Amino acid sequence: MKISFPYMGTSHIVISYLLEQLGHEVIYPPVPTKKTLSLGVQYSPEFACLPFKILMGTYLEAVEKGADTILTSGGCGPCRAGYYGELHKRILHDMGYNVDMIVLEPPLVSPLDFFRQSHKLIKKRGWINLARVFRIAWRKLQALDDLESTLHKLRPLALSKKQITQVYEDGLELIRQANSVKEVDEARDEALTNLQQVPADHSFTPLRVGLIGEIYVVLEPFANHDIEKILGDMGVYVHRSIFLMNWTKNNALTHGEEGEKDIRTAAIPYLNQLIGGHGQNSVGEVVRYAEKGFDGVIQLAPFTCIPEIVAKSIMPAVSRDKGIPVLTLFLDEQTGKAGITTRLEAFLDLMKEKRRIKQEVS
Amino acid sequence: MRVGIPRTLSYFTLYPLVQPFFEGLGVDVVVSPESNKDILDEGIKETVNDACVPIKLLHGHVAALKDKVDILFMPRLVSLDGKNTLCPKFLGLPDMVRYSIKGLPEIIENRLDLKKGKLELYRFLFRIGRRFTDNKLLILRAIWRARYNFMHYRKLLLQGFTPIEAFSLLQKGHNAEVQPQKGQIKLAVLGYPYTLYDNYISVGLLEILKSYGVNVVTPEMVPKQELQRMSKKFNKNLFWYYSNCVVWACKYYLTDKSVDGIIHVTAFGCGPDSMTNKLIELETKADRKIPFLTVTIDEHTGEAGVETRVEAFVDLIKRKKGIL
């Protein structure tokens, strides 16, 4: 089985490790570029959201490189993303590519289907092998999240942004190469120490900004024009609301109604209904960020994303009540990096001024 | 006491149920005027800019009603068939409107979720009824009347009347002799009730088709059991009630082979429709026999543009059938 999968942030390190250890040949799709997106746009419905189009392009490139199976996740609505696997499959088949799609539905929602689909992946080396590999993969996921959150803290302070990026990428490579739980832990510790050792300027407190919104555009640097890096380079501490691990725990394994209760509770005064995607979370997270004293929140969403549109229309009220500025960026295939940078700069100026006034008062 | 009902979105599905219900409670029902340019402009002004046209239109209708009524009927529709949910915008509708428009009256935002059981619809009405009166018997009587009227309405739809025709028939009292108009060719016009039957936003599409001698059928005219049967033909179904009705109706008319063509009417920026449209495009493509046309409408749609394309489509079908 020549298997491929879409990119989302750093998840490819873990997924490719899992698949290789399960005995499959992994076809790495090229990292998404402008070309991927144009290709995707050509064969996607016009109003499908940006993730659909990037994924479409990625699949086409993967298939061209010889993949015969594509692994992706399913879902049970009401966000559209749950149907993407099925529609991608139909479009690929319609174009004449005879590719097999393995769509993993949340196991607690449709256990039988999940078992059948995952068995296709696992049968080659058996379930006992999976238990061993899964433990290591889980550790890697943890290590990646730790690395990223440390990077978020240190990037705004680092004297040389170029150096810290390089150290971070070396750290990713270390984790990628690790092959046992012990090695993952060692790699993680080494990478973290290396990050700490990058010369930093501790003389100022950076602005603190929360990053919320739809998971794919929040996690995938290509979709959001590497907004974390832009902000970090501007000297802003970015706190991302979604990390791979807590998302996997809460959503990929269950339906997501159990986990994240705290954030949902915070959203209830404004939006007392699960609306799919990260709509309700977005509202709740703004409330929580305000309580934690963040300087501002940036909401990212793909164009026509239904849950985030609902969240956006409620956002002004939350922002006013809690006194926290919110900047919403809708991203699509037309969005340019310069446009985003300009708006971010303006937003930063606003937050700086707000902080200054606050300090003068107190 | 006056209750306001916006003439859009769930109006075309629920009005024959809630109108007799509120009247049975002795509450005056005020419906917003038919959609027009002022309502749409007002809606565009109030709504978050990324929303789809129907949501913008709803905001316009609410703005038109807000000073004329004491309470606004805008329930949170979660599930209308016990299986599928509605588009996330329906789920968050009361909140979206509340935070977008200032100076709103009280909103009836009770949750209607038929996943909780078949009787939930009546419990939903009962809970609303309790807001207006303590007389439980009166509420039950109103529910009974509403139910009767609603069933009658559904029957009329299955006979081939559009909701608008059915509304006026219900008001005048049904006359058995009236039959839906028959035309030379039969087209399935698929779309959501709030775009198809709103003459302003669909730029009178149904009227235009009728003037060409087309017999129009819509998803509302397919019996429920048939839709359920069609749902089994899909590997995985969509999640949204109205979208599924469209997809299943498309499959029904494709299997049934009684229609000469299919038109899908979709609104600009509609999230679920990006999936729905592609899905029925692929379905009709696989079938290879029935011509298919997509009409996208938005706040700038001009009648001439739609008319030209629909006319060409109808001519093509007529030529194919040898009528022209």
Structure description:
The complex is a heterodimer of chains A (362) and B (324). With 362 residues, chain A is of the alpha/beta class. Chain A folds into 3 domains: 2-123, 3-Layer(aba) Sandwich (Rossmann fold); 138-154 and 157-203; 206-362, Rossmann fold. Helices cover 57% and strands 11% of the residues of chain A. Chain A has a 4-stranded parallel β-sheet with strand order 2-1-3-4, with helices on both faces. Chain A has a 4-stranded parallel β-sheet with strand order 6-5-7-8, sandwiched between helices. In chain A, helix 1 (11-21) links the parallel strand 1 (2-4) and strand 2 (25-26). In chain A, helix 12 (261-267) crosses helix 13. The radius of gyration of chain A is 21 Å and the shape is globular. Mean pLDDT of chain A is 88; it is low at 254-258. Chain B has 324 residues and is an alpha/beta fold. Chain B has 2 domains: 2-171, Rossmann fold, CATH 3.40.50; 185-321, Rossmann fold (3-Layer(aba) Sandwich). Chain B is 51% helix and 14% strand. Chain B has 14 helices and 10 strands. Chain B has helices at 11-24, 37-46, 53-65, 88-91, 93-100, 120-132, 136-158, 163-172, 193-196, 205-211, 224-231, 241-256, 271-287, 303-321, and strands spanning 2-5, 28-31, 71-73, 76-79, 106-108, 111-113, 185-190, 214-217, 261-267, 292-297. Chain B has a 4-stranded parallel β-sheet with strand order 2-1-3-5, with helices on one face. In chain B, helix 2 packs across helix 3 (53-65) and helix 6 (120-132) crosses helix 7. The N and C termini of chain B lie far apart (56 Å).
* CATH architecture label name of the largest domain in chain B: 3-Layer(aba) Sandwich
Number of strands of chain A: 8
Spans of chain A with pLDDT under 50 lasting ≥5 residues? 254-258
What gross morphology of chain B would you assign?
globular
- Kindly give the count of domains of chain A: 3
What is the top-level CATH class of the largest domain in chain B?
Alpha Beta
- Largest β sheet strand count, sense and barrel closure of chain A: 4 strands, parallel
Question: Which structural category do the helix and sheet elements of chain A fall into?
Answer: alpha/beta
The radius of gyration of chain B is 20 Å
Helix content estimate of chain A: 55-70%
Number of helices of chain B: 14
Nearest-angstrom radius of gyration of chain A?
Answer: 21 Å
Measured between the Cα atoms of the first and last residue of chain B, the distance is 56 Å
Helix content, binned percent of chain B: 40-55%
Mean pLDDT of chain A comes to 88
Q: Report the uncertain regions of chain B.
A: none
Q: How would you spell out the order of helices and strands of chain B?
A: EHEHHEEHHEEHHHEHHEHHEHEH
CATH architecture of the largest domain in chain A: 3-Layer(aba) Sandwich
Counting copies of identical and different chains, the oligomeric state is heterodimer
Strand-and-helix sequence of chain A, N→C? EHEHHEHEHHHHEHHEHHHEHEH
